[in-house]
Please model this.
Amino acid sequence: METSSDNDVLDVIEDEARTDGATPGRVWRLLLVDDDDIVHASTSYSLHDLEILGRRLELTHANSAAEAYAILREDSDFAVVLLDVVMETPDAGLKLVRIIREELKLTALRIILRTGQPGYAPELAVIRDYDIDDYRTKSEMTRNRLLTSLFTALRAYSHIHALEVSRKGLERIIAASAGLFRRSSLRSFCEGILLQLGGLLDVEASGFVLARVAPSTAARVDDGGEPLILAAAGPFLHLSGTRLSHMEDEPLRRLIASALEEKRSVYLDGVTVLYIPGQSGDDLAIYVATGREIGPDVRRLLEVFCSNVALGFDNVSLLDDVRSLAYHDTLTGLPNRTLFLEEIGSRIAQQSASSGVLTVLLLDLDHFQSVNDGLGHETGDRLLLAVANRLCSVFSDQHAVSRIASDMFGVLVWLKQPLDHRDLVRAIELCFVDPFTINGHPIDIRISGGYVLADDREPDVHRLVRRAGMALKGAKRGGRGRILRFDPAMEEELSGRLSLVSRLAEAQANGQFSLVYQPQIALSDGIAFGSEALLRWQLPEGTWVRPDRFIPVAEDAGHILSLGEWVLRQACLHQVQWRDGSVGRLRMAVNVSVRQLRDGSFVRSADRILTACNAEPRDIELEITESHAMENDQVLATVRTLRGMGFSIAIDDFGTGYSSLSRLQQLPASVLKIDRSFVTDLGTHPESRSIAATIVKVGQELGMTVLAEGVETAEQEEILRSLGCDAAQGYLYARPMPAQQFERWLLDSAPVRRPATVS
Model:
């Protein structure tokens, strides 16, 4: 849910765009740096045809920190950088921030940090020292919040840019503005105004800062909106905290009142009153004893300085709200990730033998996105509130439960006995046994979790949370619906995955990848009608890396895009070679990663490969894992486009994912593949036979061919044939083979080719 403040800012942006009118040819240039193609696509969509402060937005894209650095070295004329924290390395974004500020000296450029991995959040010192405008996780960066951050950053950029082109006082104004923005309270901010003004004018700080609070926010100073002196210096120091009506100097009182009422600055010989309107409706007046008349050039400098003061005042005057938002989730009212981390550190410091061992637990709602997509975000919000209430009813200690991401909760519990963690897991599981009733309808939800036991030997809060996160990821990879305890082997596995990441690009460049082919057999007559292309990786020393190890790593690292394109090209080349040779037409099945389906260029890439290889789309079958096929409407639209081009679409591993028949009906699939886990137990587990029979029935009712994977025995083949299954593949027929060996197998076992379809 978006807050009213987000909507208010959006209204301001839209009002600015309507009333100002864009200046022809003038744009705000933004640089988007992210390794996730979906972020590029969604951001482009959100900012399309938008105008802010009278200018259109022009977006330049970079997929890595290195690419962004190259762009900025050649062309630094950007107003804002939208920067991902974790890209080539966990701190690639932060390193780029240092380069921007220290090496490239781009002080006016505004920086908005975003991350999809909250565990790599930048330290407060980095945000402060390198002048970062905003930092948010991608999950909370709605369109309104994106526009809010951009509006603030662009306004800041326009002011700072004005400072940089000023002919006089440039360095002093920038230093003054930076000093103001580092102040963390309204009173401190106002004291800083007086100090910085004294420095700009080369006079002793002498004067006061006064605020007139808008009636709608008068509760901040309980004075009904009467002006109040927030800070004072020099001979006026005693006026700090005084209301304007209590000021004894009547001429001075009338001068200040006049500036506020007329909403204008006043320049007199030896005295200046600066009027600063606030976007929030509050006004500032600054009285400065200058001792001399202020000339036109200095007045222009003061106007620029006041613009920065106005921006800072809008931020600081809402500091109480900001503090609340900084530590609490707006939807549930629970502590957010920031407070969660602080609470862990505080509890570790208090940990003793009597208190027990602190357990840090992360919980993630399985398939929560399906609730949002299927039932709407309002229902999703209500479900999150219900989950929060149920967790808080079990863990009632203050700050025990936090909401640290969209559908992720954190729980902190003291365990006094070594085996108490088993009771903890049972308590969590019991929270989700009964369905949640939302708008009168029951919703069953499963939970995945990971936890770690903290001790004095590991005081690093972020490392503890990362370890709990590793356990959570392990639970999800293991099939979801589980709660795992962190094991040191998980860190070793992560280290191994990182090692694979570093070797993937080299392996592709050096030709270490190859394809093998496994035949697909029609159960009606035993003739091979197609094959599946399977990727293999052999290291230089001769050992093989298992596909279930390197393919997920390639997906996470983004290498799957180039690797998947290579696989499709090689498979098409072999298919055409066999088609035009002695083998004849043969359907070729190729696995497609969800990262490829999310990539905006995949459809064009697939079409280009077909043309280059002289392959026909009807001969190529693209296999998509069930859970990926059901992911979202964008993936569904891509699949429909591919189907429209003539590709055959197969749903892989059916029965293991989280899908609905209504969603399955929307997919333009032609083949349904029964997962090998059901095939293996066909002869020994009646439930596996029932599941296989159901899948065959569903597929045939939807007009799809049904193919069983992992067939290894004649008994399994006979059961599948009796159930009406159309086709099969597995070791019973042949193991995956290199291209030449596969061609010989085809010619030896089935000299008469048949069309690449199964009737």
Summary: Residues 508-747 form a domain with the TIM Barrel fold (CATH 3.20.20.450).
